[in-house]
Amino acid sequence: MDLPRTTDLGFARLDPDRAARTGTPEVVYAAGKTPEQTVTCLAGLLADAPLAWATRVDEATRAAVLDRWPGAVVDEEARCVAVGELPRPQGRVLVLTAGTSDGPVAAEVAFTLAACGVGCRRVDDVGVAGVHRVLAVAPDLAAADAVVVVAGMDGALPSVVAGLTDRLVVAVPTSVGYGAAFEGLAALLTMLTACAPGVLVVNIDNGFGAGVAAARIVRSAQR
Amino acid sequence: MDLPRTTDLGFARLDPDRAARTGTPEVVYAAGKTPEQTVTCLAGLLADAPLAWATRVDEATRAAVLDRWPGAVVDEEARCVAVGELPRPQGRVLVLTAGTSDGPVAAEVAFTLAACGVGCRRVDDVGVAGVHRVLAVAPDLAAADAVVVVAGMDGALPSVVAGLTDRLVVAVPTSVGYGAAFEGLAALLTMLTACAPGVLVVNIDNGFGAGVAAARIVRSAQR
Amino acid sequence: MDLPRTTDLGFARLDPDRAARTGTPEVVYAAGKTPEQTVTCLAGLLADAPLAWATRVDEATRAAVLDRWPGAVVDEEARCVAVGELPRPQGRVLVLTAGTSDGPVAAEVAFTLAACGVGCRRVDDVGVAGVHRVLAVAPDLAAADAVVVVAGMDGALPSVVAGLTDRLVVAVPTSVGYGAAFEGLAALLTMLTACAPGVLVVNIDNGFGAGVAAARIVRSAQR
Amino acid sequence: MDLPRTTDLGFARLDPDRAARTGTPEVVYAAGKTPEQTVTCLAGLLADAPLAWATRVDEATRAAVLDRWPGAVVDEEARCVAVGELPRPQGRVLVLTAGTSDGPVAAEVAFTLAACGVGCRRVDDVGVAGVHRVLAVAPDLAAADAVVVVAGMDGALPSVVAGLTDRLVVAVPTSVGYGAAFEGLAALLTMLTACAPGVLVVNIDNGFGAGVAAARIVRSAQR
Amino acid sequence: MDLPRTTDLGFARLDPDRAARTGTPEVVYAAGKTPEQTVTCLAGLLADAPLAWATRVDEATRAAVLDRWPGAVVDEEARCVAVGELPRPQGRVLVLTAGTSDGPVAAEVAFTLAACGVGCRRVDDVGVAGVHRVLAVAPDLAAADAVVVVAGMDGALPSVVAGLTDRLVVAVPTSVGYGAAFEGLAALLTMLTACAPGVLVVNIDNGFGAGVAAARIVRSAQR
Amino acid sequence: MDLPRTTDLGFARLDPDRAARTGTPEVVYAAGKTPEQTVTCLAGLLADAPLAWATRVDEATRAAVLDRWPGAVVDEEARCVAVGELPRPQGRVLVLTAGTSDGPVAAEVAFTLAACGVGCRRVDDVGVAGVHRVLAVAPDLAAADAVVVVAGMDGALPSVVAGLTDRLVVAVPTSVGYGAAFEGLAALLTMLTACAPGVLVVNIDNGFGAGVAAARIVRSAQR
Amino acid sequence: MDLPRTTDLGFARLDPDRAARTGTPEVVYAAGKTPEQTVTCLAGLLADAPLAWATRVDEATRAAVLDRWPGAVVDEEARCVAVGELPRPQGRVLVLTAGTSDGPVAAEVAFTLAACGVGCRRVDDVGVAGVHRVLAVAPDLAAADAVVVVAGMDGALPSVVAGLTDRLVVAVPTSVGYGAAFEGLAALLTMLTACAPGVLVVNIDNGFGAGVAAARIVRSAQR
Amino acid sequence: MDLPRTTDLGFARLDPDRAARTGTPEVVYAAGKTPEQTVTCLAGLLADAPLAWATRVDEATRAAVLDRWPGAVVDEEARCVAVGELPRPQGRVLVLTAGTSDGPVAAEVAFTLAACGVGCRRVDDVGVAGVHRVLAVAPDLAAADAVVVVAGMDGALPSVVAGLTDRLVVAVPTSVGYGAAFEGLAALLTMLTACAPGVLVVNIDNGFGAGVAAARIVRSAQR
Predict the structure, then answer these.
(1) Which residue of B has its CA nearest to D205?
(2) Are strands F169-173 and G7-8 parallel, antiparallel or unpaired?
(3) Considering only alpha carbons, which residue of chain E is nearest residue H4?
(4) Domain(s) of CATH 3.40.50.1970: residues in chain C
(5) ipTM value > 0.90
(6) What are the C-alpha distances in Å from A103 to residues A94, A205, C11, C38, G133?
(7) What is the model's pTM?
(8) CATH number for the segment(s) B90-222
(9) Model confidence over C106-146: pLDDT tens digits?
(10) Candidates D130, D132, D179; nearest CB to G206
(11) Cα–Cα distances in angstroms (integers) from residue A31 to residues A34, A59, A80, in the given order
């Protein structure tokens, strides 16, 4: 068996064949990296690919990226940057949020979908305290290839949505809330114990993971 | 200040004036008591009141109670017994369960309401995975003085119900579920972080507490 | 079935019929929203109602609200703002705190009651370490329609109060304390396991939820 | 809006249109139900569908089902029963387990897939302690529409698998292990924080949920 | 420095000088030991002391002890046995329980005090739901050298007691309760965060530790 | 029964008879109070007592106190202030720390003892990693009326000390440490499960509570 | 790269080259396996090795093993069985327990060492409540190649031992204890935060893992 | 028995014989110490040893050390300083990280090894999402005396590494990650439940402890 290649940067060992193996290239997780390290990783990835991107980007790193690549795509709400040309979007993922405060995580989902070449429609603030707002998105559900639901506090939205559609529901708990929300733990447990099947869960605030997963579903439908 | 009376049974000190102070007499929590202790407590309470009752009653205690008072009211599902005459019910509390497995806790709510002299209508299995089942109880909500919602697993039902009614919603998390339900913790956290206000929460599986609270609301409406 | 209306602001979808359905209008949770978003939400709600208010308001948002509506009602301790005319208060809720440090949460309860048109009497610092301070509020208990108890650290006050009154006790654990108080977890568990029935619990530091619930009880008594 | 139908059994309210809405019929969760209740639910569901099934079935319920429907499909390892004719399988899901002790959960996945009309290939005991066993399933990954990975203890297998394939990986933590495995919590957290994207997680021991989700992915690919 | 002696039994290494060093001899913790091991340990300790005792004794061990020493002192409620002559009691410790179900832990406290040669008065069921029952023990508090408070569920009793007395309050949380009592965790946290100083806490259900500590206080008063 | 007096400050209700009831006056917990509130409380307490003090005092409050009472006793390490004359110390408490970083908590113990009129000897940094340092304090143990042990990280010191002395050991877990120290939880659990009896535990970082308790032991010895 | 071999048993995939890669053969974890499965695994492993063994063996599995291999080595305390010839022991590991109740876990360590061909000396019940018992094992420490310390409850023993020796200390927390021992969590956290370096930790009750690790240390010393 | 010496600095009691007893001198844990305290400790230790070092050093302390000893060895990434001459390295420890963000903890391992006189080879970013990167370090594993694996998030790397080598694997969980990583808890639990034996675990982010342990293994091999 031949092992895939590795690009050795010293402080990091890039995996240039990951897109070939998994459909998604290696993406730079900028938290805990210096701006220089993130820029170097992006440059290394661009040696083998037309597009490279990073998540959890703070202001200093954003500036360093723009300094190196003035045309980089920057999304402040999502805290993401991309260098290179975004692919033409195919398919459609519906991204719902339970409240306005869940917006940054939904933005990370949307950015990831765009970088993966998948179309996205986002509807914000459809929390179950006014359940008619959920019922009103039925046409959007029917038009989607997959659904991503982003919710903090009680995290109850995926349970209701999954009972209304045959699309796979990717649930993203957020750290929105206080007290017994325990930084997203309440929403996480709610989603894991959702009384409706068809709900799959990612880590708290993990918009990136939800976006990659939704992109895989869309691609699966196109295979 | 004169202190209220105490009935000293040695292993227990009864509080015969509690009904006068709080509207509800002392009720025997049979868990951790021997059948003899429960019977003795009930007898002691009956010395000052027309009705006495016990919760968390196991089979041996139920037998001991029936042996002493053959006419006792027994509810096996609720694990409760009452000795004396139940008061004529006034007012109406709607008791909803999210699933059939939540039945025993709902039965404890209903038994408690009956012992408190409050009317009860129970509708089972209106989980949010089929949210139309929740919408269908709208007439029952409008006819109720208060609502008790009993739910395990994701515990999402109170969030939806509280968005549909101006009645106070007493939420009872149950230990129904497995894994990340963590014996009712998931439902408890969901209910505490419910995105709709008007939800108040009791301990996991605490049908008794929910019943007493709902009775207080009804009485408050009648004052 | 006709679905209720929704006011679509893009980043938020307001629920203008919520007051009609639940007795309380939608209230803006300002945490996680920009000052502009909170102002826009308040303006949107005022299109359908004589009063709109927001909780968890930081200094920047307070300034933005006052800039738009110079006559807004601001409560710095409660971190709340209201725009419009407060209703004339009816009924009476007794708000007790266990200690001075619980003050901001009690202020949120009081602000919420005022916005709901419910009267409020607040007595601070009646912790059980001097239990005579609790006994001394007996006349206040007798004069109230409902009681809200706000307590951090050991959270023991609701257990004692509920044994002295037939009013419903809404218990609010606070994050006051250190070490094993675990940011309010100790008080929350104490209140959930209160040995006296008639105690209902809301989320840690959730003065808003307690206020809305107490208002529902008062309105229930007036129905 | 017309609400979907409900079949009212008193202790349960069946949702006969769920298959039309979500692609999967309501399935009976037998834990916490009496054998009679489970049989009655199955009978109620069969009134509207050619196949009904139940999970978490104990021995007494299994016997009651076989007594009523002698030709029922029974899987003791999976603790599932089905009544009616299983659909012809389409597509292929690869089900991997990290160890032999994860077998019952994998069996529930496989049973669910069969009831959903989806094909399944199962390879057991490919734990990462001998990572060559994982590499050896590469041809199976390439032939699958989706992958379900079942693992207890350290729950590390999905991280490795997701780095080898572009298929969506549904990860099922199991309660296998002792001590710091904390009844599946360790594996759950590992899977939620998997360093490879493309991993989606269900509740601990929730083979049913994983099976339904995998079936949705396969159907999505066939749409 | 000379090291103290050790009695080597192979499976155990007794510490015969512990009474000289710490005022309390080594006591056998029978949980996890075979009946034979407990009997052998007791015999080994009796070689150097007039009295030896064991806690957490199950039925088989109790029988084995009585078989070897027919005159052994046995307390079934406390699950303790003692061999030898109990010392004449000196001083007085007040032992309070919040409820009848806390009895076995209080019995372990009382047994330990007796074995330590300390007098004990026990008053059961003085829970704060009827706070007058607590006020009524004021004379007992004044007559005691130290106070032990045993309470499960909300664990609120020590906070109230410590505000009424200048005696040291040793608080014992018990595992009595359900749901959010979390096997004694709620009571433990309540006691650790008691708003009144002068409360010291031992492990959940640890009547033995509370008894030894109270005995040390009494002896300290007699030094 | 006559209720004790209360001094009503509006935001606080002082308990001037607490010293008479419990041997220790009410002490101001300054965390969560404004500097003005703390000063007002101290002034209120001084109306009935020769000494008043406050804990958890930040820099602004310290300044406000010194502004009002230039002769106040200030301990920056302990974060405490006292106004009035400290009593002449009687008795002796030994205060041990496991490490230098536990110093501020030990300082709070020492300050509290001084304010209670109890003598104190403090020996720092006697951690069990060099157990001879513990053995070396044997003479100090013999000379003390009680022992306070302050330890973070593994919290193992009280277990060792309690095996060497017949004095009561008051154990104070501290939040010193990182990772699995979980802000003092590790040390707290260690101390609660200490294999040597005679260890009593207070809240994490609660030097005040440990000081008050130790003072009660000393007074008990003097009664 | 050639992948190592796999022996496919259907329900298990054995890893016959593991001994060559890691120095220890695959060992059968019998918990969660049927007796037949354990026997089949042992037989499969014996096809490639002179010795095979299993841990966590219950009575039925022990009987099945003895039925197939009457000369199997059985250790009931350790719950282990071995088939084949044990290697001649080399080197020496010192195994200490804090209490008699930790015996079964220490027995698993000792069995594992024997199966790995490593010598073992076991000294039981050297808990820190009599710290002289720890000091007394100094000669054993000096004679050992590595030390394994097995302790429940407070788990304080490794901290003390590691301060007395330059040998690596493998710490095994056990589930011995009650209440705040939380099934071994207290001991686990204590060991992870040990104030002395040189302590490495395995899972709660994991005598097998400790034994394998100690054997690697001994072998490392012999390389 | 003669007790080892102690150097009394008042706020600290140094243990100058620790190197003789345990092979590693006392090392200054600078967190929670003032710069002056750290400098004084280092000076005290240098009175008895050619080298002294400190960990968890912040910028102010680093400056104070350099001010006193301009030639001190400073590692900003590792947050460590050493004063004196580093010993000549012997043996070789392989240090692996799962990701670039784990770098500072790996740096603390490497610094500790250097101060202990042990050689180190570090390979960064070999996470299991590209498992070929792990397989590629096989030659490094074969050349090492011991292996330290540093990983956050899912913490899965040690399980894979331990299945590839007969060296002892010291696993260091890091606090890298978010949400359900829970500040390193997820990685900690993963490592404790690693399905491959031969993995020993230290506290979260405890590079120092891992370094000392690895040095003991190397020395053990040289004894």
Answers:
(1) B179
(2) unpaired
(3) E1
(4) 90-222
(5) yes
(6) 14, 11, 8, 14, 61
(7) 0.97
(8) 3.40.50.1970
(9) 999 999 999 999 999 999 999 999 999 999 999 999 999 99
(10) D179
(11) 8, 11, 11
